[in-house]
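Reopening this one. Same input as before:
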Amino acid sequence: MSASGERFWTRETRAIVALAIVVVLLAVLAGGGSESRAPGPEKASTFITGDGGAAALYLTARELGVSTNQWMRPFPDDPSPHEFPVRALAIIAPDEPLLASEATWLLRWIERGGLLLYVAPRAENDEMLKALGLELGAPRWRRDPFVARPGHAKSTLGTSLLEGTPRSITGFRSTIVSVGGDPSVESLLSDDEDRMVAALLWHERGRAIVVADAGPIVNDHLRDSGMAPFLFRALADSSRGATVWFDEFHHGYDDRTTPTIAAWRFVSSTHLGWAVLQIAILAFVALVFAGIRVGRALSVAPPPRRSSLEHVEALAAAYRESAAKRRPASLLVDGLRLRFGAKSREDLTRRLEVIAASQPALHDDAKLLAQHSRNASDDADLVALTKSIDRVLEEENRVATQ
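Same output, byte for byte:
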């Protein structure tokens, strides 16, 4: 094991890792030990295609011609529901219980002509049920699901909703009762003891259809529970001239949410997110105290490369100091001759004289090179000679490319 690995597995670091594991276990236990909710679907959202979701209800209703959409905004703050653009609303077992103010607002909205399909969540003190004069029956949640049967509808709408409903509907675990024994509450589905599991309530110009439990509605039970005909008839009746909006805001979906806000809500409001945050902090602290380098060490930056002209100037200075200029000048001219493909110095001289005559911009450079091609002198300026060669070659390459 490397030295860094030995430092990592010190007693203090092992204690931090063990603490992180304990945090995860506590988060899992806390998430599964809530006493305010009975066993049931985790999130009956139309976005969820798994067993506990409600996507099957939403998509099938759309295929049957029901106009549907998803509502992902809070209900208006205005106490008056006049400007609310929704006429038909479906709230399926909200994951975040409705507030008392929201329930009161929805009741006024129903009274002004709103059509509500409400499926109660398995939670204590449901404010929407209270606003409608209902509550969950006792015992609130049964250990085993029971069978519900169509009741004796009193109204034309109730009879229409029950048309085609099977004689037995499975999957219910709770019932609803009218708190004040309101005779206007119409029982649509009930258990063997005539306790309601679905009811129809009229409030002035609007009405609400209330279902006691989402068990028969979720994806894995909708087809086999027998609840589908009742639900689709309820949605179809609500969609006459209107779109049925499925509330997703109370399942945690908000179309105003940015990724940053969503991440913060996950970290700050969920057991798993809180555990992830603590583990991240503990891991950072462990890395700091263990002295482990995160990633590879930065390599030393290489020194900047010198240009070719600097090398030429340095070489020219060396030749200048040694007073040996004829030989390097001759080598530079021979290099130019090879680049031009000239067989002899005479051919190179004639080529340079043509360039000097035909290209005024290169006249001085070509004349200088032609002079050294005829006879390299001891007092040659090697730097100037090199620059002239570069300019002549650059111009010849440009002309050849064109």
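So the earlier flakiness isn't reproducible anymore. For the record, The first helix runs from residue 3 to 8.
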